[in-house]
């Protein structure tokens, strides 16, 4: 049956257009119950009209569903409405919930309202063990309904759901095979919808009622989302917060500039303070300070909020007080804490200050953390403390509190009523015991949103079949470079080798230099499941004891890895150069290579230094090293920065996998050699793809920092009688080169570390969506990433662009769409940032494990930052940064005087300046299982009542000042 609607529409040009929409209705859509004679008699296998699918679900409904519901003891199927799917998705995902009918009406509405929930319900539907069935009620002649006059879209959809439930029950009754008297039960939390369903003779329960009736699965009750009723909230207690304005009023306020829109960023060290980042037009960004519980008004970290600026006389400065939320406190104590904020603010450094008036978009996610058991015996209500200090505590109800007490668990927020100090949420699942290595690794991956699930069968199905060999047909399409003496140089234990090099003399006396990169794009084709998964992951994540691959291991460690003595596909960038590293000619080509050696940096360095070794690989390395020094000098002369950052390497016990030693990474000439040619390849490819595709080239830029970022660096250098110029990258680089103080050899490294902290983040962008291409750190007008496609998806896209540019591959629509390229770049920037944060968290966790067994250790360090009541100390030996607090709870505070201009801190008359050498004792504070941390206390200089005694049990070893890792600005 064909229904059609027509309506008149006015076009932009002022014309009138008649639009006709056709809607196909059918009577052969299956109900999903296999024994059904009604469906069987209609054939049940008719080919759907294009775009109008039949009911579906890999598992289908089981013939005889089992149930232990006390409310509905006979066998039945469930049919949830839209709000149940949206808010109770954790319940629907549980293995105990099976045999569920999901209507097309519900799926369409969920898709419109929440993309994450839509993906989750689709995953459940596609799980054959769950027996979820999608019924396309909007195309069944007996279940499709028109919207009545005066009826809202929501009411029409609720009616459509009730009609579908009624049809299902009548349909099943007609079958002689329905000896079990099967029925379909409506699950709805909408009071009106439930009342009307009961009036129509349907069986309907709220989700709470049904779940609590499942006597065989009492743990399911904990997973019920706590969806609040505003009216009940107001009646139940005192109002703490102002009401959030509706979106209509917010939009009016934004339009009139009375309100500002921005991203809410909670303060990690002070739960009563936050910043809202306002992204203005033409890149003019600013931040608004929010102080006090009422002004924060139930916003959660990363929410998009509407903010009202307070009058200028109410503007304050950011608080220097550290305040951790230690659980529910009395109202007067909360007021006292807010008073403490005000007493430390100064008008001199006041910032625009505001209050949150409404929420534009909630960005809530599942949170990892631990339960804080209620002091009331037998209570089922408890507070959950998230691992991320920026997230408020969450009220949950659970009957498993004793079992969960020392576990890491996942909780989601459901609502935050105006009468509640904390949001309400529900328990999702347990991750394992707190402190357990596997559990803590899972926590840091979840908290940093790192996709780490095993690759699905759909993804793996696009991998090449083994054994894989290079065929004669392959060789016809590629340059055969197997005869060249190519080698790779990587860190020890590297299995995902994505770059290799060669250098040889040509007959004309010039040099041929080749950078050969794994041809990952040959194996990952656009748009398939493998490509989509790689694009989503964005990057490989390297933790201290494991690697989360961007692509499956068959590619990352085997077919794409440029291991020695095996033939591999590569994408080669080959230059003809003079001996003075001047480029005369460049070739880009798909190739086949056979690497002659897989070397570590140390092995390559040994070959270069050993004059008795003169084989072709070694001679090539010496030529490359010589050219690299020339290239590096040229870059630095142009203003490229050479910065530092502490990076450590853990020596892991082969049996326990615990860290047994920790040291900073040692850099060799060969590290710099490889880096120079990777940079050169990236710059060359960036120029090539931009020449060919000026609107859709994927590039990478490093914005110049605003001059205000350098304030702390300039002041710190001035305190050592050094002058740092920040007018340009060249001026900054020259200043750092000249910043030497006799007797302080490590000072220059500290200045470079501090300079790194002043830098902006390098980002990917699409050339057609930006005008500023400059890479500040490398002093290059254009740059991209081409050299690591095994571990970065950006490089895969760059390979595809370059392949099209040299006619080695064909293009596809998304590659030439600048808007889609920019959306991809946004995801890559996010994934890259999260990977960095998770790697730092992994280092912090392994450092804690190391000091757990090490005990108390005294080490020499340097003051990196000064606070009003603390010094931040860098320990070069371990690449470790920690805070020495001079004010502690329960102890008498020493006399402190902080000078912000110098900067300096006087503690009982002893003055500390930045970069001063100190000795500290390092211990692991494990008193808080959730937030274990490294504690530092001052040993030297000795300040009576402040310093702690030296650790006499430690051997008196000389402290070396190791070379710091160069900060990666590329």
UniProtKB/TrEMBL annotation:
Protein name, per record: Exosome complex exonuclease RRP44
Cofactor: Mn(2+); Mg(2+)
Domain of life: Eukaryota
Stretches with biased composition (Polar residues): 949-959
Keyword Acetylation: yes
Domain PIN: 76-195
Subunit: Component of the RNA exosome complex; within the complex interacts with EXOSC4, EXOSC7 and EXOSC9 of the exosome core complex (Exo-9). The catalytically inactive RNA exosome core complex (Exo-9) associates with the catalytic subunit EXOSC10/RRP6. Exo-9 may associate with DIS3 to form the nucleolar exosome complex, or DIS3L to form the cytoplasmic exosome complex. Exo-9 is formed by a hexameric base ring consisting of the heterodimers EXOSC4-EXOSC9, EXOSC5-EXOSC8 and EXOSC6-EXOSC7, and a cap ring consisting of EXOSC1, EXOSC2 and EXOSC3; DIS3 associates with the base ring of Exo-9.
GO BP terms, alphabetized: CUT catabolic process; nuclear mRNA surveillance of mRNA 3'-end processing; rRNA catabolic process; rRNA processing
Database matches in PANTHER family: EXOSOME COMPLEX EXONUCLEASE RRP44, RIBONUCLEASE
Xref: Gene3D superfamilies: 2.40.50.690, 2.40.50.700, 5'-nuclease, Nucleic acid-binding proteins
InterPro entries in UniProt: Dis3_CSD2, NA-bd_OB-fold, PIN-like_dom_sf, PIN_dom, RNase_II/R, RNase_II/R_CS, RNR_Ribonuclease, Rrp44_CSD1
UniProt feature coiled coil, ranges: none
GO molecular function ontology, one term from the record: endonuclease activity
Region span, Disordered: 49-73, 948-970
Location(s) in or outside the cell: Cytoplasm; Nucleus, Nucleolus; Nucleus, Nucleoplasm
Keywords: Acetylation, Cytoplasm, Endonuclease, Exonuclease, Exosome, Hydrolase, Magnesium, Manganese, Nuclease, Nucleus, Phosphoprotein, RNA-binding, rRNA processing
GO CC term, one of those recorded: nuclear exosome (RNase complex)
Domain RNB residue range list: 478-808
A Pfam family annotated for this UniProt entry: OB_Dis3
Family to which this protein belongs: Belongs to the RNR ribonuclease family.
């Amino acid at each position: 049956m064909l229904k059609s609607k027509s309506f008149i529409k006015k076009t932009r040009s002022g014309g009138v257009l008649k639009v006709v929409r056709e809607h196909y209705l059918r009577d052969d859509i299956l109900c999903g119950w296999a024994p059904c004679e009604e469906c069987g008699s209609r054939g049940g296998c008719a080919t759907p009209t294009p775009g109008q699918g039949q009911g579906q679900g890999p598992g289908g409904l089981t013939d005889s569903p089992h149930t232990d519901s006390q409310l509905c003891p006979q066998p039945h199927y469930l049919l949830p409405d839209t709000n149940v799917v949206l808010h109770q998705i954790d319940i629907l995902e549980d293995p105990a919930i099976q045999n569920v009918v999901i209507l097309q009406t519900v799926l369409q509405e969920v898709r419109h309202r929440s993309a994450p929930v839509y993906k989750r319900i689709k995953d459940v539907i596609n799980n054959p063990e769950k027996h979820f069935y999608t019924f396309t009620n909007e195309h069944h002649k007996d279940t499709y309904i028109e919207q009545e006059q005066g009826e809202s879209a929501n009411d029409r959809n609720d009616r459509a759901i009730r009609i579908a439930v009624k049809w299902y029950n009548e349909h099943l009754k007609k079958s002689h095979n329905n000896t079990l008297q099967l029925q379909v039960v409506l699950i709805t939390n909408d009071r009106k919808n439930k009342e009307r369903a009961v009036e129509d003779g349907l069986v309907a329960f709220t989700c709470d009622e049904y779940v609590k009736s499942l006597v065989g699965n009492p743990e399911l009750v904990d997973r019920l989302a706590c969806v609040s009723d505003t009216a009940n909230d107001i009646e139940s207690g005192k109002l703490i917060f102002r009401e959030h304005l509706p979106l209509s009023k917010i939009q009016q306020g934004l339009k009139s500039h009375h309100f500002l829109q921005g991203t809410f960023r909670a303060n990690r060290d002070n739960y009563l303070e936050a910043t809202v980042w306002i992204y203005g037009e033409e890149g003019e960004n600013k931040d608004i300070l929010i102080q006090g519980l009422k002004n924060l008004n139930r916003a959660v970290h990363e929410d998009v909020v509407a903010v009202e600026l307070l009058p200028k006389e109410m503007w304050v400065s950011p608080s220097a007080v550290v305040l951790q939320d230690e659980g529910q406190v009395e109202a007067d104590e909360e007021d006292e804490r807010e008073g403490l904020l005000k007493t430390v603010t100064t008008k001199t450094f006041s910032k625009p200050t505001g209050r949150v008036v409404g929420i534009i978009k909630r960005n809530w996610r599942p949170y990892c953390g631990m339960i804080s058991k209620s002091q009331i015996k037998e209570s089922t209500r408890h507070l959950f403390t998230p691992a991320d200090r920026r997230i408020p505590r969450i009220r949950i109800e659970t009957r498993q509190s004793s079992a969960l007490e020392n576990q890491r668990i996942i909780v989601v927020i459901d609502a935050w009523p105006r009468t509640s100090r904390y949001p309400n949420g529900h328990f999702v699942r347990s991750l394992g015991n707190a402190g357990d290595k596997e559990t803590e690794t899972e926590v840091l991956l979840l908290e940093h949103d790192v996709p780490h699930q095993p690759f699905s069968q759909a993804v793996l199905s696009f991998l090449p079949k083994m054994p894989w060999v290079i065929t004669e047909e392959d060789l016809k399409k590629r340059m055969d470079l197997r005869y060249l003496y190519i080698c790779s140089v990587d860190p020890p234990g590297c299995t995902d080798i994505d770059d290799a090099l060669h250098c040889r003399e040509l007959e004309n006396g010039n040099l041929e230099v080749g950078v050969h990169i794994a041809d990952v794009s040959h194996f990952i084709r656009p748009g398939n499941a493998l490509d989509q998964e790689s694009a989503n992951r964005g990057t490989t994540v390297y933790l201290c004891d494991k690697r989360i691959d961007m692509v499956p291991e068959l590619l990352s460690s085997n077919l794409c890895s440029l291991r020695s003595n095996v033939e591999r596909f590569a994408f080669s960038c080959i230059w003809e150069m003079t001996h003075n590293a001047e480029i005369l000619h460049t070739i880009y080509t798909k190739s086949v290579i056979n690497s002659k050696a897989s070397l570590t940096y140390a092995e390559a360095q040994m070959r270069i230094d050993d004059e008795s070794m003169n084989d072709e690989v070694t001679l090539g390395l010496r030529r490359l090293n010589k050219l690299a020094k020339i290239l590096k000098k040229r870059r630095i002369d142009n203003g490229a920065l050479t910065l530092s950052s502490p990076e450590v390497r853990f020596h892991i016990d082969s049996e326990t996998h615990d860290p047994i030693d920790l040291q900073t990474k040692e850099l060799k000439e060969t590290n710099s050699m490889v880096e120079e040619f990777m940079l050169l390849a990236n710059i060359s490819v960036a120029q090539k793809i931009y020449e060919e595709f000026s609107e859709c080239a994927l590039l990478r830029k490093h914005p110049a920092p605003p001059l205000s970022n350098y304030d702390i660096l300039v002041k710190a250098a001035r305190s050592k009688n050094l002058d740092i110029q920040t007018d340009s990258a060249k001026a900054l680089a020259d200043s750092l080169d000249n910043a030497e103080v006799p007797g302080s050899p490590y000072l220059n490294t500290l200045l470079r570390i501090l300079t790194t902290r002043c830098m902006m983040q390098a980002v990917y962008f699409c050339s057609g969506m930006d005008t500023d291409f400059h890479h500040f750190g490398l002093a290059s007008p254009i740059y991209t990433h081409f050299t690591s496609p095994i571990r970065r998806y950006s490089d895969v896209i760059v390979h595809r662009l370059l392949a099209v540019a040299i006619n080695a591959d064909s293009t596809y629509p998304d590659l030439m769409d600048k808007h889609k390229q920019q959306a991809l770049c946004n995801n890559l920037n996010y994934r890259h940032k999260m990977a960095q944060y998770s790697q730092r968290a992994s280092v912090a966790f392994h450092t804690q494990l190391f000091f757990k067994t090490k005990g108390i250790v005294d080490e020499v360090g340097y003051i990196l930052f000064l606070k009003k009541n603390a010094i931040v100390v860098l320990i070069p030996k371990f690449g470790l940064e920690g805070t020495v607090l001079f004010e502690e709870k329960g102890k008498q505070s020493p006399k402190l005087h902080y000078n912000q201009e110098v900067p300096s801190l006087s503690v009982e008359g002893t003055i500390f300046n930045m970069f001063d050498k100190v000795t500290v004792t390092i211990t692991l504070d494990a008193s808080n299982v959730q937030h274990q941390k490294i504690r530092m206390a001052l040993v030297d200089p000795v300040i009576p009542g402040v310093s702690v005694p030296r650790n006499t049990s430690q051997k008196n070893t000389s402290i070396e000042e190791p070379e710091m890792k160069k900060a990666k600005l590329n």
